[in-house]
Amino acid sequence: MNVIEINNLTKSYGKTRGIVNVNFNVEEGEIFGFIGPNGAGKSTTIRTLLALIRPTGGSAKIFGKDCIKYAPEIAKEIGYLPSEVFYYENMKVMDILRYSASFYKKDCSKRIQELTDVMELDVTKKVDDLSFGNKKKVGIVAALLHEPRLIILDEPTSGLDPLMQQKFFELLFEENKKGAAILFSSHILTEVQKMCSRVAIIKDGSIVKVENINTLRENNYKRFNIEVRSLPYKNYFNFGGIDNLRSEGNKISFLYRGDINLILRKLSEAQLSNIWIEEPSLDEIFMRYYERED
Predict the structure, then answer these.
(1) Closest to 81 measured CA to CA, from 50, 36, 56, 108
(2) Side by side, which strands form the sheet with 271-278?
(3) CB 3.0 to 4.6 Å from 202: which of 36, 64, 120, 290, for a disulfide?
(4) Side-chain half-sphere of 200: how many Cα atoms within 13 Å?
């Protein structure tokens, strides 16, 4: 079953581009990555999903229900963390969390205590006295306190220190184990690589690729780092499949896409002193997709 179904979703702002014919699905129990640089259309897609803005064309469903028509009903089962959180500054943290919990027909007091303990959040402070990172913690607790079936996160880790980021990821994995699906939107690719099983890559408002992360790695470039004593000829690396070639002294690195046996036979012609073959980072894979579409 698909928790999220997006079909040709389009949002334009007059002559300004928003998103164009966006298509992807998020399956039940899945942690799905949504990646692209700032301004690519991630937040517009999410806000349309949440019925915060209306689409110009196409459709989107959550739990099999139209996102616009059934927005109030759907909202009860969603936890949403925006990229920036804003609250009434004179309210105390606990008052905000109790107010958030009042929208759901359940007692969330125990869950609020558990989450604030994990996130090391002082609930007696006023919002005006909180740092940006602590305001983000309030948003995290507010998003998770009702144990939603679907968690939608838009650039969720900004403002969190590395230790708190790890605690946050552990919280998400716990919610996922309990059955929650997660849409994880970020431009920080290492986060997506750590969290997600599949990913949609968006560029200029359009989806470039929807793929399993492992498949992205397997069907893409390998990173070669070699040390050479000598090369057979000056333009030795001038053949197909090589990209991002760099050299410094006797150290050479490049990305290679193609038959691994071919490149190894080619390298056997050189006088090597060392070689390392690595999987490329998700950042490198991501940039290859962007460059191919230019």
Answers:
(1) 50
(2) 242-248, 251-256, 222-230, 271-278
(3) 36
(4) 21
**Structure tokens belonging to residue 65:** 């229900």
81 in Cβ contact with 143 (< 8 Å): yes
24-59 core/surface letters (b: 16 or more CB in 10 A; e: else): bbbeebbbbbbbbeeebbbbbbbbbbbbebebeebe
Enter the tokens of residue 217.
Answer: 């790695």
Overall size of the chain counted in residues: 294
Angle (nearest 5°) at CA 2 between 187 and 81: 40
In order of their start, the domains of the chain are 2-216 (3.40.50.300), 220-293 (3.30.70)
What is the Cα–Cα distance from 207 to 201, expressed in whole angstroms?
6
Question: What is the C-alpha to C-alpha distance for residues 52 and 154, in angstroms, rounded to an integer?
Answer: 14
Could you give phi then psi for residue 266, rounded to 5 degrees?
-65, -45
3-class SS at 146?
A: coil
Helix or strand or coil: residue 31?
strand
Pairing of strands 251-256, 242-248: antiparallel
> From CA 93, how far away is CA 107, in angstroms rounded?
18
DSSP E strands, 187-221 = 198-203, 206-212
- Averaged pLDDT in 10-residue chunks for the chain of 294 residues: 95 88 96 88 94 94 96 95 87 95 92 95 93 93 96 92 93 96 87 88 90 74 88 80 86 86 88 86 65 56
Give the pair of three-digit tokens for residue 249: 């002294």
C-alpha–C-alpha distance, residues 75 and 96, integer Å: 18
Distance, CA of 76 to CA of 169 (rounded, Å):
23
Antiparallel, parallel or unpaired: β 2-13 and 78-81: unpaired
